[in-house]
Design brief:
By secondary structure, this protein is an alpha/beta fold. It folds into three domains: 99 residues, Helix Hairpins, CATH 1.10.287.70; 119 residues, NAD(P)-binding Rossmann-like Domain (Rossmann fold, 3-Layer(aba) Sandwich); 77 residues, Regulator of K+ conductance, C-terminal domain (Alpha-Beta Plaits, 2-Layer Sandwich), CATH 3.30.70. The chain has a six-stranded parallel beta sheet with strand order 3-2-1-4-5-6, with helices on both faces. A four-stranded antiparallel beta sheet has the order 7-10-8-9. Strand 1, helix 4 and strand 2 form a beta-alpha-beta unit.
Amino acid sequence: MPFFTLKPTRTFSRAQHQLKNSLLFLLIVLIIGTVGFRLIEDYSLLDAVYMTIISVSTTGFKEVHPLSVEGKIFTVFLIIFGFGALAYTAGRAAQYFFEQEYLWRRRMQKKIRDLKNHTVVCGFGRMGKEICNVLSSHDTPFVVIERDSDAINDLIEKEYAYIEGDAIDDEVLIRAEIKKATSLIAVLSSDAENVFVVLSARDLKPELNILARAESEASEKKLVKAGANKVILPYILGGRRIALTLIKPDIIDFIEVVASGSQFELTLEQIELSGRSELVNLELQKTFIRSDLDIIIVAIIRAEGKIEYNPKGNTTLKPHDKLMAIGKRKDLAILEELAKA
C-alpha cells in the first residue's frame, strides 16, 4: 500500500452533486426539445434532435423547415432554458475540475509538509520506480523528485507523493522536506546529476544517509567524495547476480524469496533495538525469539559497527543493536514492537 493517497478522492463532493444535477437537467431539456419538435412540427427524429441542439447551443443555423407559431414559441422557451442549462453545466464542470486539481495539490503539499523520517527519492526512471515500489510495499514514507512529464503521470497513477522539479535545485530539495528526512536516494539519469544532488543534500543536512547510483567506478569515487554514504553500481550487481544464478541458482532463488518476502510470507528484516526495549541486556536464548516467534537471528550489527554472524544463545543484546532476522511478516512485526517498547 502507498504511504498515502494522492489521487483526487472519489467521494461525492458538493461540486460533484451540482455537476451531476446540471447534466441531468441539460439531458431533460434536450429530451423535451426533441419530443416537442416531433409533436409540434412533426419533424423526424433526426431533424428534431438537430433543431434541439442548434437551439440550445444558439449556433444560429437555419431551421429544417419553417416553424409554425406554436413552434416559434416553443423554440423561444427552449433557447432560454437550454442555454441556461448549458451555461450552468459548463460552470459546474469548470468548478468541479478546478476543485479536484486545486484541492488535490493542496492535500499533497500538506502531506509532504507533514513528512518526517522519510526518504527523498531523486529520479523516477526504471530504478527509481523499483525503489519506490519496494519502499511502498514496506510502508516506508517517501517523496519523489521528478521533472519528466511522463514519469509524473506514472507517479500520479501509482499515487506516490512527488514534487515536480530538478533535484539539483536546493529549493526543490527543501520543498521535499529534506531537513526532516533520514535518507536520500540519488538515481537520476546521469552520474554528473547524481554528484550535484549528493553535494546539495549533504550541504543541506550533513547527517543525512545518502545512497547513490553510479554507472562507472570513476563516478563511484566522485560520489563518495561528494558525500554519499554508499554507492551502488548496477552493472556490477547485475553481473554478479547473473553469474551466481548460473553457478548457484537455488541460493539466488532463496535469497530472492527472503529479501522480497513475496512467497510463504518469509522475509528478511533489519530491526533495531531501542534503549528502552525489554529485550536489551537479555541473552538471546532468554528472549524466546526463536522458540515462540520462530524467528532466526542471522546476525547482529552492534552500535559501533561490529557484525556478529550466527550469534550464540548466550549472546547479550545491547541498546541500538540491529538484528538481521528471518521469519514470517506477522512474527517480525511482533519482534519489531518488542524492539521499540
